[in-house]
Amino acid sequence: MHQFHGMGYNEYRRTHKKRMKVERKRERNYRSSQIVTANLKGKLFLSTLN
Question: Taking Cα atoms as reference points, which of 28, 26, 32 lies closest to residue 1?
């Protein structure tokens, strides 16, 4: 937790504002990874057709 977000779990748990900031960052990362995965799957699918 500290390595990725710059705070320990206790601080994350205590401070609502910081918790929401971490969760927004996680959501952005998740959505970004879903787009990358979809693009890769599309490329893999197209390469199997050739």
Answer: 26
